[in-house]
Design goal:
Layout lengths: L10 E3 L3 E7 L5 E7 L5 E6 L10 E4 L2 E4 L1
Antiparallel strand pairs: 1-2, 2-3, 3-4, 5-6
Length: 67
């Protein structure tokens, strides 16, 4: 995926999406979601700082969280 930098991107896959941490074109840290079938970006969330260690996901009371 286009991560916006030359470094490795932390990522995980769901049945339908690839979710990864990278940078936007301005260098700001962003969490991206990409449709695995089409490669289309389906979402992005600005992050307060670069991701350095990886991603994990969990569900609590019916809501999915990414940390």
């Amino acid at each position: 995926p286009r991560t916006g930098s030359g470094r490795q991107a932390a990522m995980f896959a769901t049945p339908d999406m690839l979710v990864y941490a990278g940078s936007d074109s301005g260098g700001d840290p962003v969490l991206f979601a990409v449709d695995k079938a089409t490669g289309e970006e389906v979402g992005r969330v600005s992050m307060p700082d670069d991701n350095r260690y990886g991603l994990m996901t969990y569900m609590h009371e019916g809501k999915q969280y990414i940390v």
